[in-house]
Amino acid sequence: MQAHNHKESCNEHKLQAGLNRIAKGKYAEDAASRYIVKELGWDIVDRNWRCKAGEIDLVARDGEWLVFIEVRSRSAAGSRFGSAREAISPRKQHQVRKLAELYMYSKRLTEVRIRCDAIVVTLESTVNKVDYSYHLEHIRQAF
Known about the structure:
- The chain is α+β, with helices and mostly antiparallel strands and 143 residues long.
- It has a single domain (2-139), classed as Trna Endonuclease, Chain: A, domain 1 (3-Layer(aba) Sandwich), CATH 3.40.1350.10.
- It has helices at 2-39, 90-106; strands spanning 43-51, 54-62, 65-75, 113-126, 132-139.
- A 5-stranded mixed sheet has the order 1-2-3-4-5, with helices on both faces.
- Strand 1 (43-51) and strand 2 (54-62) form a beta hairpin.
- The N and C termini lie far apart (52 Å).
């Protein structure tokens, strides 16, 4: 009976960690969206665009450019998985480029200049149970 309870608490811990990861990811995407609109003055065209091949975090309009943005977050305390910037692997870069092509095709967009940027959000600390202090790094033409 005790082992069963321990397993349940481990599963509850994994569920809580997963929810925490999702919440942090959403917080980072929200921070990136605010930055794009308020600081850069760009328009958000799409957010969390999905197809069978994956998801594009943000699509924005920067003048004549259609910008596909990969948002990555990590905690400042460090992660055993590396920094947020390191998390944009060559495989992920290829996937974002492929998704950009699929997006263009699905929206019937031609003759549009495109680029792929990355926004890296490092979550510094929890201000309260909802907000974080964070550092945001925008990498233009990241890949």
